[in-house]
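Hey team,

Filing this mostly as a record. A colleague (T.K.) asked me to run one chain through the structure pipeline before their review meeting, and I want the input and output archived in the tracker in case anyone asks later how it was produced. No errors, nothing strange. Just documentation.

Input sequence:
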Amino acid sequence: MKEVLSFLSDLHDNNNREWFMANKERYRYALDKHHANVERLITLISEFDNTLDGVGVANSTYRIYRDIRFSKDKLPYKDFFSAFIVRGGKRSGYGGYYLHISPKGNTWGEGSFLAAGNVCHEAYVLRSLREEIEDNAAEMSQNIEQSGFGLNGAASLKRTPSGYRVEPQYEYLLRLKELCISHPVTNEWFLREDWVEYTAEQFRKCKPFLDQINRAIEYAYEMEGIRVRR
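Output structure:
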């Protein structure tokens, strides 16, 4: 992983086409390493999550090239590697396991982290998630606590949405606009010889949380008659 971290760190400091083209071989080597690690991670997660049938590197990883057509930020490349390992593939809308490798932080100020869940829910999915919280708030609170991850509460309403009722200590769950938990990690995390296996073990603790939100998402899809895209 030293080569991966080194490439991403240098790309952070030299985010331009000239430097990237001159270091294309370093990029390809780092990308191959990343893909091999993601493939191993998928295999390990599949041992405890049987919903990942058909999921592979291609539908779990992202291009390094940024779409700058409508962005004020004209940097051409992402300065991080990531993977979203989730049933149906990264565009399915289900909650899954997210890996983000960013040794110097990225455009949004985030460093490396692990996450579980999903963001940017459609309105009908968010309604189903809130109904799940209304029915099983204590279970969700316990699943979040047992994961060892922290709740991403940045995208949260100031007031509890009307039409839902839970005990006061769980109202914060209803105010969330996305269901996602995360855990920051340092560069040293990726220098462990067993970092992929260790990461899979952390994700294992998130499975009860993902099972709960995914049953709500699945119900929302069924009600809308939506077929998941891979």
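Quick notes for T.K.: Residues 2-224 form one domain. Residues 123-147 form the longest helix (25 residues).
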